[in-house]
Design a protein that fits this description.
Two copies of one chain form a homodimer. Chain A is an alpha+beta fold and 168 residues long. The first copy, chain A, is built from four helices and seven strands; from the N terminus they run βααβββαβαββ. In chain A, strand 3 and strand 4 form a beta hairpin.
Chain lengths: 168, 168
């Protein structure tokens, strides 16, 4: 059975008015500290500044006016590395299983190609985040390598992290 | 024959007064764009701000008052990734072959361990930079993976880049 999807899901650039919804979505994930390498005690203002930073383009996925997820895209490096992009995706708590993350990643891959990026790189995919790893694999990402003990998980301690990459 | 080394080489934290020397060392490498993923046209002020940014500790290697090289160390990620450090090293043009880069890397490995870091990661070692790759390998770094076409080299076009990593 395919995952439930709403045909009405719409992905668009985030506006200023989306900031409260984006914060509601990203803050629990940042506070948990299990998937993103961010200071779990960062302020709400810093969390929003991070997710909507000047080097990023930020999108939201919405369904009938409810923001179900958000992602950013940015150049992963400057200069000779700026043709490779990097993204982060977060689905609203309780909105899992509806294909939101997949839709956002598909959107980001198409958007990245349209912007002239030649590849997408995830620098630190936490090894215990199996659901994400399977999703990225199903979307054509390859595991470039495994960084031993590169992430301190709040429950599991030091775990490996993957570098994942997809040519566009 | 071992590389020429000066027994007097001293590595210490950079001071404000080192800024002109640091700029002399890093600017040609940034302008060349062959080894660092940085905007080759960045201003001198931005170059110094990058190399001596607030999240970095910056060192210089000097011999009889002449700064021969500089390196920085910083956490490679925040939060659950902050126990892995990242460094950049640049030797002054004309000062190659004296073991400056090796001495700086050895210093950084010892300093990193003393600061509680558990690993050191290089995120983007340009595949054509064979001298650096051999040096890092000789200092215990492993190639975690190869990023296809991740760096646009000014002469060779799109070349692979390596992710290298060493546990401390």
């Amino acid at each position: 059975m395919p995952p439930r999807q709403s045909g009405r899901m719409n992905i668009r650039k985030a506006w200023e008015a989306d900031r409260p919804a984006i914060l509601e979505i990203i803050l629990p994930v940042i506070r948990e500290g299990a998937t993103y390498a961010l200071d779990t005690s960062m302020s709400e203002a810093d969390a929003l500044s991070y997710w909507m930073a000047g080097d990023k383009e930020t999108f939201v996925a919405e369904d009938r006016g409810i923001v179900l997820g958000t992602y950013y895209i940015r150049p992963n490096q400057a200069g000779g590395g700026r043709h490779v992009c990097n993204c982060g995706y977060i689905t609203r708590a309780g909105a899992g299983g509806r294909g939101v993350a997949r839709r956002m990643c598909e959107h980001s891959l198409a958007y990245a190609a349209s912007r002239g990026y030649r590849a997408m790189q995830f620098n630190l995919v936490v090894g215990t985040n199996e659901r994400a790893i399977h999703l990225w694999q199903s979307l054509g990402f390859q595991t470039i390598g495994r960084l031993p003990g590169a992430f301190q998980h709040p429950t599991f301690g030091y775990v490996d992290a993957l570098v994942m990459y997809r040519l566009l």
